[in-house]
Design a protein that fits this description.
Keywords: Cell membrane, Membrane, Transmembrane, Transmembrane helix, Transport. By secondary structure, the chain is mainly α. It is 82% helix and 0% strand. The longest helix is centred in the middle third of the chain and has 38 residues.
Length: 452
């Protein structure tokens, strides 16, 4: 049996690798499942596909809430675990279960009431409008289970059970895609295929995660715990809200990026979207590495003053490993971007040059982009969420404003791509700032600081 990880004493490089690899695997499997689900849903009617596409941006509301609570609970539990305070962890679990339930019920009720207004905003015809409203309401109701599952997985990671959380995450994803396939292809449930698949897979994975937490004797849901929620609410305010806002910034930015390409034609928009989707798969490892580093840092912060130097050492080592990882990624993308773009745009050859141009220009800076994203991910998990939010907002706002002006004035879409290139270079200043900040806060060396 493999030795259990000791987040406050094991060598840091080994910790980062052994923690980030399973998290990366779980994330990549989940993203592959999303792609597979879109493919399977191609078997339903055109109206169903259209309604599913309208729901996609609204799904960011659930994602924002789920990730906000997930990272907040992961941070808090990791710190209490580092301090070996299981009593506080039990209270923390009760607090987050209650907060998730309240927040999601408010969201579901809001969506239920506003569904007609949302349908009118999209200008839907009467026959499609009824279908859209019904799907929207039942999907958000199902998202209560999805959100609980995401948060329970985060609690497991925060407690140090990263592998178990990843196994459950992969199992959830595989069950989900299998059910979507069965319900859509064989049982012809159309839009309800996603609803049924999400409900069943979330229920199964959520119960399994709850059982593992219960087995560790850290789940004791008591009303008395609700009287001591002040610190949990403060954590949500410092960590959860900035994380949720960052997801909304990402959604708005992606929408505006596509708008920049609109004047250059449908092929330009399609090519950019495909290049952006490829890039999303590329940047995911940075978020997984950042999540792993955050868990290690929080365990050491919770362990107390003698272990604080390991916090800075963990970040420093994480930056180095991220840059090395993305250096390889950059070369791979430069050599294979055209092959990948042609495969993804097999039915739309006119869009291929736009996707290839974007990747040729931006790919050389993926090493820097990886370090930037890893850094913002870490900041979100060490009570510096608003710093990460401002970094994200400044990065995306700069690209949007400068690109919009240059492409409008000079009439070349490549200026959008080059703006992203230079924004990635300029973004390194944020990494340097955080590096100096953490060195000043945690960088004093003591005998407890382990060898890397």
């Amino acid at each position: 049996m493999a030795r259990k990880l000791d987040f406050v004493r094991d060598p840091i490089t080994r910790l980062i690798v052994r923690t980030s690899l399973p998290m990366l695997l779980g994330t990549m499997v989940s993203m592959a499942v999303m792609v597979a689900n879109v493919f399977f849903m191609g078997n339903v009617s055109a109206e169903a596909i259209y309604i599913r596409s309208l729901y996609t941006p609204l799904a960011f509301l659930t994602i924002a809430i789920a990730e906000g609570f997930a990272i907040s609970s992961q941070v808090m539990i990791a710190r209490f675990k580092g301090a070996q305070n299981d009593v506080a962890i039990r209270k923390c679990v009760t607090h987050f279960v209650t907060l998730v339930l309240v927040a999601m019920l408010i969201l579901v009720i809001t969506i239920y009431i506003s569904a007609p207004l949302i349908a009118n905003f999209f200008g839907l015809q009467a026959d499609v409008k009824a279908m859209f409203m019904s799907f929207l309401r039942v999907m958000f109701l199902t998202n209560i289970l999805v959100t609980f599952t995401v948060v329970l997985f985060a609690m497991l990671r925060g407690y140090g059970h990263v592998k178990q959380a990843v196994i459950l995450s992969v199992g959830y994803a595989l069950l989900n895609v299998s059910l979507v396939f069965l319900f859509s292809v064989y049982w012809h449930q159309a839009l309800l295929s996603i609803v049924y698949a999400n409900a069943i897979s979330s229920l199964c994975a959520g119960v399994a995660a709850y059982f593992l937490l219960f087995k560790q004797k850290i789940v004791q849901l008591r009303f008395a715990h609700l009287r001591e929620m002040k610190s949990t609410l403060a954590m949500v305010g410092r960590v959860g809200i900035p994380v949720s806002l960052s997801y909304l910034v990402l959604f708005i930015s992606t929408f505006l990026f596509a708008k920049i390409a609109v004047p250059f034609g449908e092929a330009a928009v399609t090519g950019f979207k495909v290049a952006w989707n490829i890039q999303v798969f590329i940047i995911v490892p940075a978020l997984a590495i950042g999540g792993a580093i955050g868990i290690i840092m929080n365990h050491n912060i919770g362990a107390g003053k003698p272990f604080l130097p390991r916090v800075f050492t963990t970040f420093k080592t994480g930056v180095l490993l991220t840059c090395l990882f993305y250096l390889v990624f950059s070369f791979v993308m430069l050599f294979f971007n055209e092959t990948l773009a042609r495969w993804m745009l097999a039915e739309y050859a006119e869009a291929v040059p736009y996707a290839v141009d974007y990747l040729n220009i931006v790919a050389p800076t993926y090493m820097l982009m990886g370090a930037i994203l890893m850094t913002t991910s870490v900041l979100e998990q060490i009570n510096r969420g608003f710093m990460a939010l401002w970094m994200n907002a400044a990065y995306f706002a700069t690209i949007i404003v400068v690109s919009w002006v240059l492409t409008a004035q000079l009439g070349l879409l490549s200026y959008f791509y080059w703006t992203t290139f230079f924004a990635n270079i300029a973004g390194v200043s944020g990494v340097i700032f955080v590096f100096v900040f953490l060195r000043r806060s945690y960088g004093k060396v003591t005998q407890v600081d382990q060898a890397v």
